[in-house]
Amino acid sequence: MTTPSVLPEGRAPRTDRAPDELAQFFGVLAARLAQDRVNAGISAVPAKPRPRAVARRRFFHRLPGLAAGLAGLLLVLFVAFPRLADSADLPDEMLGTWRTPAAGYANRGFTITRNSLTLHAGQGGSVVTTHRIIRVDVDHHGDEAVYTIKYESEDGSADLAVRYLPGRPATARLLHPVELVWTRDSTRS
What we know:
By secondary structure, the chain is α+β, with helices and mostly antiparallel strands.
């Protein structure tokens, strides 16, 4: 029975060496390697490391990977959920359906929830479009605050800026047209 050759193609294995000669060669090679290890201060048989030292080594060995994984997770969270990154919360007083009695706008309104903005238009508010709120920015001016609601629209995203004025009743003014006063319906949605 012949053994397969591991030599490069075209080269024939040497068959002129006797088995004793090969055994002697490998014995000398093993002795030299062992002597090199002794000279380098390495034990011929490695000492079994203590379990605590192994655990500490494994932890520090994996630390860069863990840090990179945590950084990647945070990046995904801030990209996938932009509301988590410095987005203000709408106060409860802003939630609900807002309407105005002004001529030409009586059939319009908007409803704000924690997650969506619904715009009402048409006869009796029959045309309704609901949009997911992406983020909310707030700018305080004394007792009043301007809430800029960024929401998803058909064209990507849009903003609705609402100046909220606390009081009885609380009122809101859109930044355009500014002269219209909106009040929240007494029946909250």
